[in-house]
Amino acid sequence: MTQAYRTIHVPLDGRAYDVLVGPGLLARSGALIAPLLRRKRVAVVTDETVGALHLDALREGLAAEGIDMTALALAPGEGTKCWSALERSTEWLLEQQIERGDIVIAFGGGVIGDLVGFAAAILRRGVRFVQIPTSLLAQVDSSVGGKTGINSPKGKNLIGAFHQPSLVLADTHMLRTLKTRDFLAGYGEVVKYGLLGDAGFFEWLEAHAPDMAAGSEEARVHAVARAVQMKADIVARDETEQGERALLNLGHTFGHALEAATGYGDRLLHGEGVAIGCALAFELSARLGLCAQETPSRVRAHLSDMKMKVDLSDIKGDLPDAAGLMALMAQDKKVQDGKLRFILARGIGSAFITSDVPQSAVMAVLEDALAQR
Ligand SMILES: O=C(O)C(=O)C[C@@H](O)[C@H](O)[C@H](O)COP(=O)(O)O
Fold first, then answer.
1. 3-dehydroquinate synthase N-terminal domain location, by residue (predicted)?
2. Which of 10, 67, 290, 370 is 20 to 30 A from 251, comparing alpha carbons?
3. Atom of ligand 1 nearest to the CA of 249
């Protein structure tokens, strides 16, 4: 029988794992997870939206191999990446008597993956976990690479740990139930991969992303698998972001500041902040003479074609002024010796990391973007 899914291996010494990408993996979850189990019992943490839609299917998939499942459903949304949800999850896992040898399943989007991965990292000083990402953003990005954590009122993802999953099941059927806004927010992370390191992939997206949005399974599998392969390659070379991994942060320096400014809520989803942040990073690159003047327009044209948020004027409500946004950017984890490091680009597919960016140039980009609101 031909395999209906693609396998991408993340070759980390002692912590290697596979990411499976394709339709129908939830139904096979029992058979795929069983080899990892010491006893036929798992604890699942999900959110209420995903739980209502897909928890029964996961239970059935696990039951097919005689695996019992106990589940906790948390409130959906970025607000759940917080201390109180972390406390609730860890206390619940202890109540369920999850042992060091057991497996915890993070069943949801990026919020659940990051939160539950962090809970697994600190529970009994570390238990293994499986990511079953249900959003496009989580499938292409956050479920792979082991960055786990929660937000602080002082900034995004400021409390966390590197803790690699033991397996990732990216079932592309699950993307069918995503709301358009969530799908497009996830697409912000997909396009990031083309922009940072693969001009050919960006061109493919310009031609095929509308098919992805319209529901083409083939296009979705291709895009998720390509993004995951790029991430796996980078993570294998630089697991803990000592260098090259920071490329995956393209768009995030601006994006995280905008998320903090808008309160990590419905005003701006993470992937929307990343898309706007990518447009700003290319604008900054062009103004510094690093890439052709027309490149930012090409990036923005594609985002607009996809009906995504592109500009600061697409964010409703008040925003801080440029100095206020700069102050939020100062909490970025890429800050070194008090100096911000940026991911800029010499062209589409050619991103690089630099701390050689005059503050006045960043201020000017932000002031001009704010002036257009
Ligand atoms: O995996 C990475 O490395 C990334 O930077 C991927 C990002 O898209 C992701 O949002 C990540 O969680 C951000 O990391 P952070 O270190 O900037 O909080």
1. 73-183
2. 10
3. 5
| DSSP assigned state of 139 | I
- Could you report the predicted ipTM of this complex, rounded to two decimals? 0.98
Tell me if 135 is assigned to a ligand binding site. yes
Annotated binding residue 147: yes
Residue 144 has pLDDT above 60, yes or no: yes
Listed in sequence order, the residues at least 6 apart from 1 whose beta carbon sits closer than 8 Å to its beta carbon are: none
222 in a known ligand binding site? no
Catalytic residue of the set 6, 81, 147, 300: 147
Sign of the dihedral through C-alpha 205, 131, 11, 118: positive
Which residues, at least 6 apart from 168, have a Cβ–Cβ distance to it below 8 Å?
A: 17, 18, 19, 20, 130, 131, 132, 133, 143, 144
Whether the pLDDT of residue 153 is over 90: the answer is: no
125 a catalytic residue:
yes
pTM, two decimals, is 0.96
Domains of the chain: 6-177 (3.40.50.1970), 180-371 (1.20.1090.10)
Angle (CA) 178 183 185, round 5°: 135
Residue 369, classed as helix, strand or coil, is helix
> For this structure, is 272 an active site residue?
no
pLDDT tens by residue, 9-64: 999 999 999 999 999 999 999 999 999 999 999 999 999 999 999 999 999 999 99
Ligand 1 mutation pick, 156, 162, 192, 248, max ligand atoms within 8 A of CB: 248
66 Ramachandran zone, left/alpha/beta (phi>0; psi -120 to 50): left
Task: Look up 256 and say whether it is catalytic.
Answer: yes
